Amino acid sequence: MKQIEVRNLRPVFLGTCAAFFFAFTFILNRAMELSGGNWVWSASLRYIFMVPFLLLIVISKKKLRSLLQVMKENSGTWFLWSFVGFGLFYAPLCFAAAHAPGWIIAGTWQITIISGSLLAPFFIQTIQTPNGILKKRGEIPIKGMGMSLIILLGIILMQMEQAKSLAVKDILLGIIPVIVASFAYPLGNRKMMEVCGDRLDAYQRVLGMTLASLPFWFLLSLYGFFTTGAPSKEQTMQSILVAICSGVIATILFFKATDMVRGDMQKLATVEATQSMEVLFAVIGELVLLHSSFPSILSWSGMFIIMLGMIAHSYVSHKGEMKHNQDIGT
Q1: Any domain includes 4
Q2: Within-domain flag for 6
Q3: Residues 291, 129 contacting (CB under 8 angstroms)
Q4: Residue ranges with strand state E in the chain
Q5: What domain count does the chain have?
Q6: Does 141 have pLDDT greater than 90?
Q7: What pLDDT does residue 4 have?
Q8: What is the sign, positive or negative, of the torsion defined by CA atoms of 86, 248, 257, 146?
Q9: Where does the chain cross the membrane (predicted)?
């Protein structure tokens, strides 16, 4: 009995660990900004440093050659959607870190759930049924969007607290880039999943998109070099930590957790909901490492509403998916 309980808790534990390491992105980006580092280097160095680590993983799996073959077939598409999925995702997040604390960015980032839902009609779903494969255009999950309003309420409460101490310009510069990133990340990744199909695993796809986005990061680095000079040793080391913690460790832990519950929508929903812990970990991290000011009751309320909304959204979405698949099967 105890072995079964431990087996059921392990995916949740791994998912929570992934959220912990993902939170380092927001904490370290803010730390780099506060220490005088430029957001350009925070963005570009992460992906440049991710390459050797991802290469080691893919090479160890002996899957590098197949990745390069798939990339060669449609290189233009790889460059386009990698730029959208990685470039227009992470550069705006780092830019926003210059105008708001990391926990605010982490909380606002959860709006990506809403953005991802709104993008559903732009993709064709392939569903396996007893009568064969059925293809249909995605639909916006109405019930899931209802739960998303809870997340939006939490974000508004957090931003209301920010509005007391920041100018309107700084608030907008801390929110609008995150909204852009929230659409770019799922759009680029889903488009690449369509292109890759079942030919590549997640590690290959992440490495491929990282390699394809390198021209953008190199250009951004040149811009940073000629405008602010070379990055400091401190920012370089912090960028390596972001690449390892968020780009490698967190990703591997999260993929491992989802692989363990593949096929069980309820357990998958539980694992996905653990990512709401990013907000809490980001707050604790900034309080301990950066000695930031303690969030107000209003901000804490917003954070917990966001976490509640993410959990509710995950369960409602997967419950609806299970019912939809059962209806198709009959």
Answers
A1: no
A2: no
A3: no
A4: 124-129, 132-137
A5: 1
A6: no
A7: 45
A8: negative
A9: 12-32, 38-58, 78-98, 104-124, 144-160, 166-185, 206-226, 238-257, 269-291, 297-316
Closest CA relative to residue 158, chosen from 276, 306, 311: 306
Residue 87 lies in a domain: yes
CA–CA distance, 181 with 189 (Å, rounded to integer):
12
Shortest CA distance to 161 belongs to which of 313, 22, 27, 296? 296
Radius of gyration of the chain from its Cα atoms, rounded to whole angstroms: 20
Locate tokens 């759930």: which residue? 113
With beta carbons less than 8 A apart as the criterion, state whether 289 and 31 touch.
yes
- How much is the pLDDT for 171? 74
What does the pLDDT read at residue 268? 61
Task: Provide the domain limits for residue 275.
Answer: 37-329
Query: In Å, how far from its chain's centre is CA 133?
Result: 30
pLDDT digits (tens, 9 = 90+) for 166-189: 667 777 788 889 999 988 988 888
- Is the Cβ–Cβ distance between 286 and 105 less than 8 Å? no
62: number of CA atoms within 13 Å, CB side?
Answer: 0
User: Is residue 296 within 8 Å of residue 161, measured between CB atoms?
Assistant: yes
